[in-house]
Amino acid sequence: MKFLVCISKSPDTTSKIDFTENNTKFNETGVQYIVNPYDEWYALVRALELKEQNGGSVTTITVGTAADDSIIRKALAIGADNAVRIDAEANDAYFTAFQIAEYAKANGFDMVLTGKETINYNGSQVGGMVAELLGQPFVSLATKMEMSGTTATIEKETVGGVEIVEVNTPFVLSAAKGMAEQRIPNMRGIMAARTKPLEVVPAVECEELVDFEAYELPPAKSECKYVDADNVAELVNLLHNEAKVI
Amino acid sequence: MATDLYTHPDYFNMDDLLSEEHKLVRETTRSWVKQNVSPIIEDYYERAAFPEHLVKQLGEIGAFGPYIPETYGGPGLDQISYGLIMQELERCDSGLRSTSSVQSSLVMYPIWKYGNEDQRQKYLPKLATGEFLGCFGLTEPDHGSNPGGMISNFKDMGDHYLLNGAKMWISNAPKADIAVVWAKNEEGRIHGLIVEKGMEGFSAPEMKGKHSLRASITGELIFDNVKVPKENLLPNKSGLGAPLGCLDSARFGIAWGALGSAMDCYDQALRYSKERTQFNVPIGAFQLTQKKLAEMITEITKAQLLTFRLGQLRNEGKATSAQISMAKRNNVEIALKIAREARQILGGMGITNEYSVMRHMANLESVVTYEGTHDIHLLITGMDVTGIPAFTREMPNK
Ligand SMILES: Cc1cc2nc3c(=O)[nH]c(=O)nc-3n(C[C@H](O)[C@H](O)[C@H](O)COP(=O)(O)OP(=O)(O)OC[C@H]3O[C@@H](n4cnc5c(N)ncnc54)[C@H](O)[C@@H]3O)c2cc1C
Fold first, then answer.
1. Do B77 and A191 touch (CB under 8 A)?
2. What pTM was computed for the model?
3. What is the ipTM of this complex?
């Protein structure tokens, strides 16, 4: 079975977030990038496990510049067989999905896996778009997947419960927590990653559907107000008139 | 112990000097430590128990013989990677680093460098995976700083050697499958021999009652007419220079490692100084606290530069023993001082097992003594710059 795992970068959670160029660009100075955890811990590791059980190959794909090669090498160190990088800034979800879908179409995969979202933009869009562009089923937020032949039995999160679906390959899946356990690479894997193929492919023409107007930080946390436990009337008053939530 | 929040201080952007691979090596070791060691280390330390289950895991991640070539089961990394692995292990616990650096530099290194091909094939792959644990027997009850005076000896009995003597303070010994033992032949020349667990007349009792390196196991090695097969002699180097060559490699790892404990102490003290409030301000607002923190980061930064340069020299095969001595001595000393200052910043909390500072401090008391004491390393630098050895002297007449 041929797996294609989408790997993207996201800033380390300790990175300071701010913007440049009149708040139209994310300021990358001093930002340490990591492999997006949902891609690494769940999508990649589950693909590797299934390959180890039933054979096949795991290819990673990243839309990004040469600066992303370090996160790609990490994915190879964890165990992917080879990597592809579409040589372009991954500016928006449609552009990214389009590039991935074009590569997937040309190279034929049984399963395309993504993380459920990236931890910087939390867009959750790429997987669904790739599926649509490929004309394949899409299973989102999957927490468990077992394969039997070409049929996958997948558990996915729904509001207040679990949905179990069956789907035949080829399909696209976005992986959430529960799908697998994080795998720490080892030194031998890091050395092996040196010689694994990382193919750089030029981006294909793609319509621009998104304009970036401005970035904004979430509002700063306001101060905590304490209300005496006996003073319920005051609490209701504040929630009603000040916070305006009831 | 509270959640391990460690991030390394990097005041002079040293990370820019590291390759992506170096950073991945460091991140890998750190993640493994945070997941598997940080949550249990205080408990093992308190019980003075050896976390034996970590031996296989250290093998799996590649922390045994990181620079041993792939043909012998090692990952074949460079010296800076080795240093970074030691740094990440020791920033958690010096005992953990000891287990790994003894295996790497004092057991695998001599077999790789002084052993023959059969010995390499027989032992290195098993040591690399952690299937075998090894130890290194140089120190004797009456010969610590002066190992050349050792009395352990072996006789050529025709079809085997007969080994007699005793070693003391040997890390990993009670759990070790093999011991690289240094002993004199009939001509008084020092040779390395591989002694295997279970050989008749060989025992390795545990030494108890350590107030330091409590999560590392230490023992004696006792040889009572042990018949050692002739093929177990390391053929390619003899004389005191042979064990000293291993010590160069181990001390290099300790220089990186001790700096790791210093960085961990600083990291905790800095965080605490911003969180802990007294007299209505964070204690980090006091000049006296800032003096401590500023001096710590200054010493850490100097040590990082020294250590990184030493790594480059070692990669090029150009680091001298005296350079390694200077780095070991300096880094352990600053680590001890930083541990003590960090403990003060943490106030009463500093003496508890909620923080690793006091454990580092106690551990470093071993590290400042083993692999050449603080003063012996000073004498090595002294000899190197003056050309005059000052290790020995005549007993003055009464
Ligand atoms: C926890 C632990 C683990 C160890 N693991 C190992 C191991 O795995 N393998 C191994 O072989 N050894 C090991 N050692 C032994 C260690 O290397 C020795 O303890 C060390 O070399 C010092 O020897 P000593 O303890 O006999 O002290 P001594 O040599 O007796 O020194 C006592 C004091 O005298 C000073 N001194 C000695 N000679 C001089 C001199 N010429 N000039 C000035 N001052 C001098 C020393 O600096 C020191 O302050 C370990 C030790 C410890 C504590």
1. yes
2. 0.92
3. 0.87
